[in-house]
Design brief:
single chain, alpha/beta, D-Maltodextrin-Binding Protein, domain 2, 2 domains, 12 strands, 20% strand
Length: 289
């Protein structure tokens, strides 16, 4: 007859084995707009990171919530409370790093802070004539409600008109509510193409540059998920698979942006957290001469 202590040990062993095979479900917000081209890249990077760690950390499954990707909307609130949303990807700021736990690997290699403009086609000559930041300050920029860029632009003397929704900003630009829509160099081309019928184009001569990063963020208590994502991203950086995904989505956009030919205006970022890993050169994109 089996002794009670042996039965207890077998029970504990079987219970532990049961836990090993559990699937980690990672829930993401849905798209704010059906036409929003920005998010597929970040979805693939998250899948890459979790896949790199699957042998050691177990299986996973990524699910999309019906909640829209609203940076300071319902998605963020559910992330903060620890329910229904597990990961968001957004631009860092001191406030956001207080609210959420960042995975400090810049997903766009800092290129979110390299801003070119979507403008009305009839304004191309006006912008091409700008030679100094002081001249750009005569124009009004458009940004989304509670986007960190609002504070950055205003701190650098650029007036900002705020829109309530991502999609609505293009309509506001078309109607002349503001003059230019600063977008990351990996965002502007696709967005302008989607709104070409509204007479919107990518401005070809200017670029704003300020230090910032797009990160994955998780609930502040979910240190295990943050650690798994960081380990996976660092493995992907080391073996080159991060760069392959980056190039797949961004290489042609960067070529078309022709950053090296533009007049660059450097801005200060007063909301950049001190912990931003600016010293890790391999994490950042370096514009070729």
């Amino acid at each position: 007859m089996l002794r009670p202590i042996f039965l207890f040990a077998m029970f504990v062993w079987l219970f532990a084995l049961e836990g090993v095979g559990e699937t980690l479900v990672v829930r993401l917000p849905g798209r704010e707009s059906a036409d929003d081209p920005r998010l597929a890249y970040f979805d693939e990077l998250l899948d890459l990171a979790l896949g790199k760690t699957e042998p050691s950390d177990g299986p996973y499954r990524i699910e999309k919530s019906r909640l829209a990707m609203l940076t300071h909307g319902r998605g963020s609130e559910f992330l903060k409370r620890g329910g229904r949303i597990d990961v968001i990807y957004t631009m860092t700021s001191i406030e956001r790093e207080r609210e959420f736990l960042p995975v400090r690997i810049p997903l766009l290699k800092g290129l979110l802070g390299h801003r070119i403009f979507i403008i009305r086609k009839q304004d191309e000559a006006r912008f091409a004539a700008i030679g100094k930041l002081e001249e750009l300050r005569k124009f009004k920029a458009g940004q989304g409600h509670r986007w960190p860029d609002v504070e950055i632009l205003e701190a650098n003397g650029i007036a900002v008109e705020v829109g309530r929704s991502y999609g609505g900003l293009f309509e506001m630009l078309e109607r002349g509510r503001f003059d230019f829509f600063p977008r990351g160099v990996t965002e502007a081309q696709g967005e302008a193409a989607l709104h070409a019928e509204q007479g919107l184009v990518v401005e070809q001569t200017l670029m704003l540059v300020y230090p910032t990063a797009m990160y994955f963020f998780v609930n502040r208590e979910n240190t295990s998920l943050a650690g798994r994502i960081e380990r996976g991203l660092r493995q992907a950086l080391a073996d080159g698979s991060f760069d392959r995904v980056f190039d797949k989505y961004n290489a042609s956009l960067l070529e078309r942006a022709r950053m090296h030919t533009r007049r660059v205006f450097h801005l200060q970022n007063p909301i950049l957290p001190a912990e931003t890993p600016l010293g890790e050169a391999n994490l950042w994109y370096h514009v070729p001469d």
